[in-house]
From TrEMBL:
It comes from Pseudobacteriovorax antillogorgiicola. This is CO or xanthine dehydrogenase, Mo-binding subunit. InterPro entries: Ald_Oxase/Xan_DH_a/b_sf (IPR036856), Ald_Oxase/xanthine_DH-like (IPR016208), AldOxase/xan_DH_MoCoBD1 (IPR008274), AldOxase/xan_DH_MoCoBD2 (IPR046867), AldOxase/xan_DH_Mopterin-bd_sf (IPR037165), TAT_signal (IPR006311). Residues 506-596, 626-858 form the Aldehyde oxidase/xanthine dehydrogenase second molybdopterin binding domain. The lineage of its organism: Bacteria, Pseudomonadati, Bdellovibrionota, Oligoflexia, Oligoflexales. Pfam families: MoCoBD_1 (PF02738), MoCoBD_2 (PF20256).
Length: 918
């Protein structure tokens, strides 16, 4: 058997470092230089294994991103950069594979002309019949057909129809351009009318409060319910009661003298436009029954689970171990969460064993196959009384999920939960669903359904302001959620939503104060000028819960190392998580390993989903049980949830490692100097305490290693509208952590020893219905010019305001705002990915057909991005998604201000402007 890619890991480390999915061991590697091929020790490969030069100059601030130098100098950090020759033990022979995809889903698929493919150099093909003969079928999350079947239509445009192998890489390179449009190689038959299938997910959120503000019904208070919707009955089930209050809201809208403003809004499907298209390496060793994959992903453990479920009943294919080497995914904000790409990388390997298989998506492939943002149709109705107070709203949102249910079930729900856009409503009724189609599957993407909902609500609020002849900001100020008020799910946010402070700042800008005067002055000839505003309030974190893992270790020389299951997908966590340690340990981490899960197996945990409170209480009695072992990186959870896990581990290291080391050096007892974290300070990398000499971190580390104090802490944390807490006994001292699992390393030891928890307190199961209780507000003001003759819209500049709690890294936060501004302009004015006829699912799409904003379109040099410091500053908040949501409605409202015409469908292309102005 050939040496494998984890050959430098000892047997003990491997057994300790693997997790189990069924009977199969799964090892998730941090891909760094330790896996580089022997004989090339200076080769830079994968994620950086130490902080870049310059990070040591300031112990708290960093000069640039942790991964920045590696990226700008072209080091091998993405899967596209890695070749078999770079990895220890991989077969040197490289077979290139390409996934061939259907360009027609309205005619039967009748096979591929293999003769023509062989002429191109194809040495082998894999089709649905091969999978069927092997007993392979989809299971679990990936529920659609893996490949289109002969004699039936493809389930969706871009569905794989075959994997073609090229043993000769040069032949592949020559043939690649001919495979961009494969219509000449595919046979189609008779026309078939697509049948609309069952919705991927359907949600209803209803809330009703009485005249005195008493909550009569809400999702959070009364509990969940599922379709089909029952007949109204105020004394019936939650479902029937929801229907009763739906009818009550309809009646209230009809019988009261309120202004009813309503509209039908639409947002288009767009592509994430990854910096790096999906690609990877795979190798199946039939002798050891090991599958190796090297790729960039947000969800490595889920990818392994998807592969194993797909192969669960396969004939003659048995996998005992999966090894996943994690690279940086190259951006994407969600587009690689449960991507189907790893499944095909797996199939390509198991059907061509013993070889290194390389699949590289071109940008053409990525447009045809990559997950998209859900196109949406949103009908919204808003009731406003004569004083400008919102009395209720109703939203009906339908998302196009494409041909596979990739998180559509969750996206529609999150969109529905964020449909109120941060306003207080005594009455609310939201219906949302995601439906199947023959389009390219839609999945996770920045905003996760909330962008669509925010666009409709913020444009409609502006229409209401016009109807009432009110200033749009004044109308918003009258109706925002600020002090502990419930959102439309009935949940009271954990932190105050400071929308009022942001709106006041926006109101004071010269851009807003002078907008009417500037409109009159600058609207000359063919140019129309306008300024618009929008508020966005977005939840952050996941439901059914955020599962965060972190290890913080200190070496004898004082270097800090961190491991986490989080992945940097463009959100900057490779930089901000190391910086999170400064508040506890006085300096940032020198190294971070991201995307690892198997390294946490020292905690010896298992998970099983509890169905009710009784089961949760029963399961929690086992100190090794947790609701979920790990999660994919998503939901802007880095700033608050992932940071929390890192700080919990750092706190343990400080109290039980560095503090006793300090006492030893001071020759003091814990009785004479009892632990008091509030008195501990860090000055220039040295621990200081009143009345004692300061001790450098390096000296403390050496003492902790010498005396056998704690030198590493590993935690598992869980958030479900509240942190799990548990008791642990450390060095004879009992204490409570906001964590449900803990393992420690002492002195020079390498192994972690798990501690047995006691008195664990999990958030109640009812918090599943409570949903998100963490929200971040953002306000955008945008100025535009519209050309009467061409219909072109030009964004001139703007000013934005954000409350994201305490800022860990200012450059990262500002970068997120700048990137979201550009992305929002693309969503509003340019980008369009037709879901069906003529769209990228039919192939031959690239950036020559898909218009993205250029630098000249974004006017970033004329946009001021403000981070607002508020009283009683909260901890860092997730903000990467919310800063996108406000941009499209702000631009559309600005166009409406300029033209006097309302626009409700994105993208806002010139022909729509011209039609409205004609």
């Amino acid at each position: 058997m050939q040496q494998d890619s984890y050959s430098k890991v000892s047997r003990r480390e491997f057994v300790r470092g693997t997790t189990k999915i069924g009977t199969t061991a799964v090892l998730v590697n941090f891909l760094g230089t330790d896996l580089a091929k022997a004989g090339e020790p200076n080769q830079s490969l994968g994620q950086p294994t130490s902080a870049p030069k310059g990070w040591e100059e300031d112990l708290e601030k960093v000069p640039y991103r942790y991964d920045g130098m590696a990226k700008v100098t072209g080091q091998k950090i993405y899967a596209i950069d890695i070749r078999p020759k770079d990895l220890t033990g991989w077969p040197l022979s490289e077979t290139r594979a390409v996934i061939l995809r259907a360009s027609d889903a309205e005619r039967t698929f009748e096979g591929i002309d293999t003769r023509k493919l062989k002429q191109l150099g194809v040495s082998q093909t894999l089709s649905a019949s091969d999978l069927e003969s092997a007993g392979i079928k989809p299971d679990g999350f990936f529920s659609s057909s893996i490949m289109a079947k002969k004699g039936a239509p493809a389930q969706f445009l871009g569905q794989p129809i075959s994997i073609a192998y090229f043993d000769d890489v040069e032949r592949f390179l020559d043939a690649r351009s001919q495979l961009i449009n494969i219509s000449g190689f595919v046979k189609y038959g008779k026309a078939v009318q697509p049948q609309e299938g069952k919705a991927y997910g359907t949600s209803r959120i209803v809330r009703y409060t009485g005249p005195n503000g008493k909550e009569l019904f809400s999702y959070a208070k009364d509990g969940s319910f599922r379709p089909p919707w029952q007949s109204p009955n105020v004394s019936g089930s939650n479902n029937a009661r929801a229907s009763f209050f739906v009818e009550k809201i309809k009646q209230d809208f009809q019988e009261n003298d309120w202004n009813i403003v309503e509209g039908q809004f639409g947002t288009q499907s767009v592509d994430p436009v990854f910096m790096e298209a999906e690609c990877g390496l795979s190798w199946f060793d039939p002798q050891s029954r090991e599958l190796h994959m090297t790729l960039g992903t947000q969800s490595p453990l889920d990818d392994a689970e998807g592969c194993l479920k797909m192969l669960a009943k396969a004939k003659g294919i048995k996998i005992d171990r999966i090894v996943i080497n994690c690279c940086y995914p190259g951006g994407g904000f969600g587009g690689r969460d449960h991507s189907e790409f790893p499944l095909y990388l797996c199939l390509a390997a198991v059907f061509n064993p013993g070889k290194s298989i390389r699949i590289v998506h071109s940008r053409f492939d990525q447009f045809q196959a990559g997950l998209k943002r859900h196109g949406a149709q949103i009908d919204t109705k808003l009731a406003v009384d004569q004083d400008g107070l919102f009395q209720g709203f109703h939203t009906n949102m339908t998302l196009d999920g494409g041909g596979h249910n990739n998180y559509s079930f969750a996206v529609q729900n999150v969109g529905g939960r964020n449909a109120s856009s941060g306003y207080a409503f005594p009455r609310s009724w939201v219906d949302s669903k995601a439906k199947p189609s023959i389009g390219v599957p839609a999945g996770s993407m920045r905003g996760f359904g909330s962008l669509q909902a925010a666009f409709a609500m913020e444009c409609l609020v502006d229409e209401a302001a016009a109807a009432l002849k009110m200033d749009p900001i004044e109308l918003r100020m009258k109706n925002i959620i600020t002090d502990p008020q419930a959102v439309h799910t009935g949940t009271v946010p954990l932190f105050r939503i400071n929308s009022d402070l942001l709106l006041k700042k926006a109101q004071q800008t010269a851009l807003w104060r002078n907008r009417e005067a500037e409109k009159k002055k600058r609207s000359q000839g063919d140019t129309l000028y306008g300024v618009g505003v929008a508020l966005a309030v977005k939840s952050y974190g996941k439901n059914p819960g955020d599962t965060c893992l972190a290890t913080v270790m200190i070496d004898a020389d004082g270097k800090l190392r961190m491991h986490t299951n989080s992945v940097d997908m463009g959100n900057g966590t490779a930089t901000t998580l190391p910086q999170a340690l400064t508040s506890v340990l006085g300096r940032h981490a020198d190294q971070i390993k991201m995307g690892v899960t198997s390294e946490f197996e020292a905690l010896n945990l298992y998970s099983k989903r509890a169905k009710n409170q009784k089961e949760q209480d029963e399961f929690a009695q086992d100190p090794r049980w947790v609701p979920f072992k790990a999660m994919s990186t998503a939901a802007s959870a880095g700033a608050y949830q992932m940071r929390h896990a890192a700080i919990q581990a750092a706190d343990v290291l400080l109290e039980h490692g560095l503090w006793p080391a300090a006492l030893s050096i001071w020759q003091q007892s814990s009785e004479d100097l009892p632990w008091n974290k509030a008195l501990v300070r860090w000055d220039d990398g040295a621990l200081s305490y009143p009345g004692q000499v300061s001790i450098p971190l390096k000296t403390l580390a050496a003492q902790a290693h010498k005396e056998g104090y704690v030198t590493g802490a590993m935690v598992h944390t869980y958030y479900r509208a509240g942190w799990t807490s548990a008791g642990f006994e450390i060095a004879g001292k009992k204490q409570v952590l906001k964590a449900d699992a803990l393992a420690l390393r002492h002195g020079k030891q390498e192994d972690f020893q798990v501690l047995t928890r006691s008195q664990v307190q999990y958030p109640p199961m009812s918090h599943f219905d409570k949903g998100a209780d963490l929200y971040t507000p953002y306000v955008a003001v945008a100025a535009v010019e519209v050309n009467r003759k061409s219909g072109q819209v030009k964004v001139l500049g703007g000013e934005t305001f954000l409350d994201c709690g305490r800022v860990t890294n200012l450059d990262i936060v500002e970068g997120q705002m700048q990137g979201a501004w550009a992305m929002g302009i693309g969503q509003t004015l340019f980008e369009d990915s037709p879901a069906h006829e003529g769209g990228p699912g039919q192939g031959a799409w690239n950036l020559h057909r898909y218009r993205v904003p250029r630098a000249r379109d974004c006017a970033l040099e004329r946009v001021k991005f403000n981070i607002v410091n508020v009283p009683n500053q909260d901890p860092p908040k997730g903000m990467a998604e919310v800063v996108l949501n406000a941009v499209p409605p702000a631009i559309v409202n600005a166009v409406a201000h300029a033209t006097g015409k309302r626009f409700r469908q994105l993208p806002l292309q010139p022909k729509k402007i011209l039609e409205a102005l004609s």
